[in-house]
Every structure is written in structure tokens, then in C-alpha cells.
Amino acid sequence: MQHVLNCTPYFVAAWLFFCGLYGLVTSRHLVHSVISLAILQSSTYMLLLGIGYRVGGAAPVFVGIAPGQLTVDPIVQALMLTDIVVEAVVVALLLAMVVKAHEKSGCVSPTDLRTMRG
Amino acid sequence: MTERWRIRVFLVAGPIFLGLYCYAAMNLPAWGSYRGPYGDAISRLVVYQRHATDAVNAINYDYRAFDTLGEEFILFTAVLGVMMLLRRPDDVAMRRAKVSDEGKLSTTVRAIAGPALLVTVLFGLYIALHGQLTPGGGFQGGVILATGPLLVYVCENTKAFRRITSHAAIEVIEALGAGGYALIGLSGLAMGVPLFTNILPLETTGDVWSSGTIAVISACVGLEVTAAFLLVVFTYLEEIISGQVPQE
Question: CB distance B78–A74 less than 8 Å?
């Protein structure tokens, strides 16, 4: 049981991943696909922040704590920080593609987008 | 692939992946007993080496500055992509849309949104400029600052929003943010030291003007992120803001 509890963040990450993947697989609307992809991607935040966590670790901000004190891993936090902002803009880019796809082909279902037209 | 086949492939591949993932997760070190050496090394050295108290930003804008430059340009390119995809060709005939929001909102909304705008801008500037000391930095501060003009859009009307986010000015600010970051990195090369060396004086730890290039790069990123988010909003709302829609 202890072992299962120790793995909780990894299972939450898997749960988010499969929620997103299921949404992508069964998607009938391109906007729905884009949101599913964003959820799928957020599983990586959970996974990496879970790996970087450390019992008894302070936040990696050295105000009021000694420089040598045990902290949670600042590297994964730095990775996630940039990624969250970039993800928001990438979602905006994908939604712009959806708008254009609808304009060109008149459909918003991934199944109907069979052929590429220039 | 039809939807039925997509689900069949998912039902076969999903459990296989889940099994492998569970096997891998069970063999990871237990939660909370991370053993990576690099984070510890940086935690020990960051205050002495860079005079920055926030290790996360010291990594982003100094130790890993080259990677963050890449991320910054992903942001830049994605915004460029949104603008190119959604731009209207010049030869499309436009007509006035029926959208009309000239009227002002209720006094209550405007009375609350005014102070809220002040707080938002101050808070955004604070977060963007204190990244080297406390949690925050250019990315977070930029997002907060970008909500300022949106508050104006909510509580005033599109005319006021257009005055603030005049398109050309925002584009120049975004280019300044992205270019400034690259220039700070390159100026190290010009002085004969490796790319993204911290060339500015480090000053006293805990001071706003401490930690050398970390503070400057954070401010540049703040500019870039603010402009990027405003450009995305501006592009999406262009038809409403300009009041012109393409003729059918």
C-alpha cells in the first residue's frame, strides 16, 4: 500500500494522459481535439513536478533559508514554467488552424478532413 | 481512419502503454526521494555564484539561458503563425459589421475595473522585475501585464482597447523583447566570453538591481510575453475591434 501511495503523482499523470488521449481518439470536433491535446500535455507537468518533489524540501527560493538547505528540484520547475506559457500560445496557434480548416473545407470534424487541398 | 478503427487501435495500444508505464513507475525512486544531483548543485551554489535568491529564475535566465532563448522563439514563432493564419488578404471586400459596443457599461463595473487595472499593472510589473529575488519573473509577469488591456476591453469598449493595443507598437515591443534577449546573450560573445555569460556586475544579493543579466533578461521576457499575448488576443478579436467583416 505504501508503494502505491508513493506512486500517486505518476498515476495522476497517467490519468491525465489517458483522459487527453481518449478525448483525441473519440474527438468529433477540432476544438475538442485541441483542448484534449492541452490536457494530454498537462500530464507532463504532473509527472516532472512529481519527480522533482522531495520530502522535507523547501521551495528553491533562498530568502530566509540557508543556501545549503535541502530544496525541491528547481530544474524541473524551470522547465515547466516556460512550457506553460508556450503551451498557451501553441493552443492559440492550433485554434487558428482550426478556424482556417473550417474556412477552407467547411467542416470541423477530424474524420471529415480526409484530403489536403492547397 | 474511421472513428471505430481509431477506438480499436486505442483499446489495443492503450493498455499496453499503461502496463509499461505502471511497470516503469513502480521502479522509480519513491515519491519525494528524488536523487538528481544537478538541482542540488545549483541550490547550493546559486546565491554565491549569481547573487540571485530564486534558483528557478537563475536556471531559466542564466544556467539554461540558451534553452530559454529557444523557448522564447517558439513563443515568437507561434504568435507569428497565429497572425499569418488569421490575416485577411488585402483584396477581400470588407463591410461594416453590426457589432456595436459604443455604449458604456454600468458605473459599478467601471468603478471596480479602474482600481483593478491599477493593481493588475502594478502587480505585473512587480512580478516581472523581481524574478531574481522571489518566485515570478518575465513569463509570469508578462501574462499578468497582458490582462491589463483586457480589463480595459471588458470595462470600456473596443475603441479604448484599440487605443492601448495599437498594432504596430505591440509588434515593435515584441521584437524588442525577443531581440533584446538575444542581444544580451551575444554581447558576451563580443566581449570574448562564452554565449550568455553573466557579464553585468552582480551587486548585493537581495537587491532589485542584483544578479546581473538575470534581471535584465527577465524584463526582456516580460516585454515579449506581454506583447505576444496581446497580439494573439488582438488577432482573434480583429473583426470585432475593427468592426469590419469580409463580405459574403
Answer: no
pLDDT attached to residue B90: 74
Helices B167-190/B65-86 angle, 10° precision? 150
C-alpha to C-alpha distance for B117 and A98, rounded to whole angstroms: 33
Residues 60-79 of B with CB under 8 A from A: 60, 64, 68, 71, 74-75, 78-79
Q: How is residue A57 annotated by DSSP?
A: P
Is 0.90 topped by the overall pTM? Answer: no
Residues A7-52: pLDDT tens digits?
788 889 999 999 999 999 988 899 999 999 999 999 999 888 888 8
Three-state secondary structure readout of chain B: CCHHHHHHHHHHHHHHHHHHHHHHHHCCCCCEECCCHHHHHHHHHHHHHHCCCEHHHHHHHHHCHHHHHHHHHHHHHHHHHHHHHHCCCCCCCEEECCCCCCCCCCHHHHHHHHHHHHHHHHHHHHHHHCCCCCCCCHHHHHHHHHHHHHHHHHHCCHHHHHHHCCHHHHHHHHHHHHHHHHHHHHHHHHCCCCCCCCCCCCCCCCCCCCCCHHHHHHHHHHHHHHHHHHHHHHHHCHHHHHCEEECC
Which residues, at least 6 apart from A90, have a Cβ–Cβ distance to it below 8 Å?
Answer: B74, B78
Q: Are B132 and B203 in contact (CB under 8 A)?
A: no
Residue B123's contacts (CB-CB under 8 Å, 6 or more residues apart) are: B144
Alpha carbon B212 to chain centroid distance? 21
The model's pLDDT over A2-16, given as tens digits with 9 standing for 90+, comes to 666 677 888 899 999
Q: Which cell is A89 given? A: 500560445
- ipTM at complex level: 0.84
Domain ranges of chain B: 3-246
CB contact under 8 A, A89 and B47: no
Q: Does B15 touch chain A (CB under 8 A)?
A: no
